[in-house]
Design a protein that fits this description.
- It is a single chain.
- By secondary structure, this protein is an alpha+beta fold.
- It has a single domain, classed as 2-Layer Sandwich (HIT family, subunit A), CATH 3.30.428.10.
- It contains three helices and five strands; from the N terminus they run H-E-E-E-H-E-H-E.
- A hairpin with a 3-residue loop joins strand 1 and strand 2.
- The longest helix has 17 residues.
- It is globular.
- The site of zinc ion (ZN) has 6 residues, from helix 1.
Length: 114
């Protein structure tokens, strides 16, 4: 998608601080972190949101979640815990329409979320 900022980040057209990459997944630090660790984990392929995923994306979804776990380990979050969030659509608070997981940690999280 030529007008998608996260596709531009994957392609290197917009700079980002990479923390992890494999064949299917790219992860980078959020520009406006809400916690000491705030990493965005995205598929390299443009998929708008969870709502646009189907059975053909099951393996990709697993790879995204396992990337979150691996990054949490690299970031030293595994012992004390962390949160993985997916904002989906307008009322879910999604502002960038390229699927992403937020990995946040390094402080205590609250529930319910805002
Ligand atoms: P959403 O609100 O869609 O769940 O999350 C989008 C996230 O992308 C926000 O946390 C926002 O700070 C982050 N973001 C938006 N534009 C950029 C950018 O150009 N670079 C980086 N690193 N993060 C971005
Ligand atoms: Zn995209």
């Amino acid at each position: 998608m030529s007008d998608c900022i996260f596709c531009k980040i994957v392609n290197g057209d917009i700079p980002s601080t990479k923390v992890y990459e494999n064949e299917y997944v790219y992860a980078f630090r959020d520009l406006e972190p809400v916690a000491p660790t705030h990493v965005l984990i995205i598929p390299k392929e443009h998929i708008q949101s969870l709502d646009y995923m189907n059975e053909s994306n099951i393996e990709l979804l697993g790879k995204l979640m396992l990337a979150a776990k691996e990054i949490a380990r690299f970031e030293g979050l595994s012992e004390n815990g962390y949160r993985v969030v997916n904002n989906n659509g307008l009322m879910g608070g999604q502002t960038v329409n390229h699927f992403h997981l937020h990995l946040v940690g390094g402080r205590s999280m609250q529930w319910p979320p805002g």
